[in-house]
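Quick one, tokens below. Sequence please?
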């Protein structure tokens, strides 16, 4: 009788620890996912700034009718 009660108690304890560990892992996964989304948003914002600067420079050259001094970015002229 004592053995059955002890076994039942240990089984409940194991199930409780499993549930706690699963919750901990889910929280960790959610935290990683959130950090990745924040980094993705930051990169997207930086890309938008670069695109804006390039479009701004392009419109400046179009309006003035001139060409940039450095036509090719990979060659230093």
């Amino acid at each position: 009788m004592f053995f059955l009660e002890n076994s039942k108690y240990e089984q409940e304890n194991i199930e409780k620890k499993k549930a706690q560990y699963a919750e901990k892992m889910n929280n960790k996964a959610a935290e990683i996912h959130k950090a990745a989304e924040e980094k993705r948003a930051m990169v997207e914002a930086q890309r938008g700034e670069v695109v804006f600067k390039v479009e701004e420079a392009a419109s400046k050259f179009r309006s003035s009718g001139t060409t940039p001094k450095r036509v090719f970015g990979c060659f230093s002229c």
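The first helix runs from residue 2 to 64. The helical segments are 2-64.
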